[in-house]
Predict the structure.
Amino acid sequence: MLEPRERERERDRPSGTTDVIVRSLDAVLWAKQEAFISETLTWCADLFQTTRARFIRPLDVGTWIVYTRQKDTVTTHAADYAEIAMAYTVGLGRQPLAVTRPRISRADGGGLRPIALTSYLGIPVVCQDRLVGVVEFAGEVRADFEMALHEALPRLHSAGQRLLFDPALNARNEVTPETFCTLDAFVWTSNSVSMTGEEFAFVSQIIGPTTVFDAAFAADLDVEIAVGLARGLAERGVLAVHAL
């Protein structure tokens, strides 16, 4: 049976389960993302000298998911309203937040409940002004956690970039002559970037969202060749491809 606090959390949890979320996404990509987040949380837990670390992230399907790493295992669940509110508060500030004995109310403003019994540390992961998620430690961490923060922030920023732009962790959109290309994915690329003359000619025509057809025409390239170029550049993380 559920304890009173667990019953309260279930009542506050938005409808839908992790299984529903997974079914709405690509199962293979979901597994890859979960493994990557698990690896990142393990590194964070070791750095901050704690046994429990969490990552709460908003998903494009309109809900938030919580990854909890404890005792070398990672579990997931759909975030309840209090968990979302705390993560949103940290994300809104765009700076790490350390507080003692934080309390969060339900969506109706009542029923205060603790997020942590002793202390809470939330680290926002932001990329291109977009909140990728929040790493949370609810409980004691190393006393000199400011030094750990200095070491953690660059890696967490890189993790955010990969979750948004790494083709290995994201769905590959179909590329057609009508597909729009942008350079905003250039924030993360796989290994060093080298381009052929045709690729460079194609990329040089992309100023803002540009269709493959328009870039091919401006670069004097065959459209079918340009489609292949765009697909390869997107897989290497140089371009973002999407429909508008």
